[in-house]
Amino acid sequence: MWGVKLAEYESKLNGKLELWLINNRKVLNTAHANLSFDSLHRIFQEVFSRINIKLKKPETALLLGLGCGSVPTILFNELKLNCHLIAVEYDPMMIDIAMKHFDLQKFQNMTILIDDASNYVHQSIQKFDLIVVDLFTDNEVPDKFTEFEFIEKSLSLLCKSGILVFNMMTENLHQQQRFNQLMAHFTKSEFIKLFGTNSILVFRNN
Fold first, then answer.
1. Positive or negative, the Cα torsion across 52, 56, 59, 63?
2. Which residues pair with 168 in a beta bridge?
3. In whole angstroms, how large is the CA radius of gyration of the chain?
4. Coil, strand, or helix at residue 146?
5. What φ, ψ does residue 141 adopt, rounded to 5°?
6. How far apart are CA 178 and CA 168, in angstroms?
7. Predicted model pTM
8. What is the pLDDT along the chain (206 residues), one digit of tens a residue?
9. Does residue 27 form part of some domain?
10. Please, are residues 203 and 192 in contact by the beta-carbon 8 Å criterion?
11. Which domain holds residue 124?
């Protein structure tokens, strides 16, 4: 058996969410994408490995789009980093699922805020060593998060030697074109293509 569906939820913001048990591990999916602890988890494992985030030892990190906690699980449990993480999530149902099924409350170094990522970025004055942008509605990044104004304000929150990681799906031509438009906002950046589904932009502020 490929997996067992454990529960189904209907989110006003993300539509149908499905909780599955796959290979003895809980994962959360939308209709067309994994939100936490399956392919998305492997993507960020690979990205953090390639950018050597463990060696950089960030003291402050910002996660825009918490999901059910793949990124904090990697940073805290797998890489054993001792940083303070602010995680911004717009969907309260996502946080409820994360607390109930993924024990998200165990991360004492993480502050969870229920807010729109754009609103948070435009109001914040804090600087971060690491910013991770993982903002999806199903398998698409809303347009406002790829516009210059949001990108410019996000970059203003980076420390002098900070790193910004921006995840997008690029399975089709339209998604690839949007990713290319995102890349155009950056004077210096690199991208990582993973599993034929995702392109991750990496910007180093140095």
1. negative
2. 199
3. 16
4. coil
5. -85, 120
6. 9
7. 0.95
8. 478 999 999 998 888 999 999 988 999 998 888 888 999 999 999 999 999 999 999 999 999 999 999 999 999 999 999 999 999 999 999 999 999 999 999 999 999 999 999 999 999 999 999 999 999 988 899 999 999 999 999 999 999 999 999 999 999 999 999 999 999 988 889 999 999 899 999 999 98
9. no
10. no
11. 34-204
Half-sphere exposure of 135 (CA within 13 A, CB side): 25
User: Which pair of tokens denotes residue 169?
Assistant: 């799906």
Q: Structurally, how many domains does the chain consist of?
A: 1
Scan for tokens 């995702």, then name that residue. 198
Which of 163, 174, 160, 176 lies closest to 47 in space, CA to CA? 163
Cα–Cα distance between 168 and 171 in angstroms, integer? 9
Distance, in Å, from the CA atom of 112 to the CA atom of 63, rounded to the nearest integer, reads 9
User: DSSP character for 23?
Assistant: T
Using CA atoms, how far apart are residues 176 and 168, in angstroms rounded to an integer?
9
Residue 125 falls inside a structural domain: yes
CATH number, domain of 57, equals 3.40.50.150
Buried-exposed string 98-119: b where 16+ CB fall within 10 A, e elsewhere: beebbebeebeebebeeeebbe
Q: For residue 14, tell me if it sits in a domain.
A: no
Tokens coding 107: 């991360």
